[in-house]
Amino acid sequence: MHREEDLLLVAADWKRAGRQVAVATVTATWGSSPRQAGSQMIVDGDGRMLGSVSGGCVEGAVVREAMEIMAEGKPRLLDFGITNEQAWEVGLACGGKLQIYVERVE
Question: Are 77 and 26 spatial neighbours (Cβ–Cβ below 8 Å)?
Answer without folding.
Answer: no
